[in-house]
Amino acid sequence: MKIDFKDIHIGNLIKILVSEAGLSTDRICTYMNLSEEEIKNTYQTDTLETKLLLKWCKLLEYDLFRFYSQHLLLYSSPKGADYNKPTESVLPQFRKNLYTKEVIFYILETIENNEKTKNEVIKDYGIPKSTLNRWIIKYGNKAF
Questions:
Q1: Of 6, 48, 90, 107, which alpha carbon lies 20 to 30 A from 137's?
Q2: What does each C-alpha distance from 25 to 15, 20, 38, 40, 71 come to in angstroms?
């Protein structure tokens, strides 16, 4: 199944993970403290509150927030000269360019399927040309 990182439908992804894990509706209702109808509604929604999403992550033992991290990697490229400038914040600073294999394979698939050219990928996602070429050499046929 190909994940659409641009338009994330979290409810559908949760439904798939529940099915793969083979969790019973009773167990989900008990753990989440929700009715069966509320669980079904969750599968239909494309957004969830953070606390509720965190509970799903714990129940499914899967980092659902990762989908949003991948979205940020792919669709919010560094802009301007102040990009690498350190910022002062009490919150922890996370490195932006940590590409998972899923994202790498997604990008390579878009090239292989002629959805985007190499130059479009470089421009749209802000990936250095040398990095993209390294991925093609390293993962080439594994991604397809």
A1: 6
A2: 11, 13, 11, 10, 30
CA dihedral of 137, 139, 142, 144, whole degrees rounded to 10: -80
pTM of the predicted model as reported, rounded to 2 decimal places? 0.61
Which residues are within 8 A (CB) of 94 and not within 5 positions of it... i.e. 6 or more apart? none
pLDDT, one tens digit per residue, over 108-130 is 998 998 999 999 988 888 888 88
Rounded Cα–Cα distance for residues 135 and 142 (Å) = 10
* Cα-based angle 106, 109, 111 (whole degrees, multiple of 5): 115
More confident call, 112 vs 88: 112
Residue 61 to residue 42: CA distance in whole angstroms: 17
Task: Please tell me the distance from the alpha carbon of residue 11 to that of residue 67, in angstroms, as a whole number.
Answer: 12
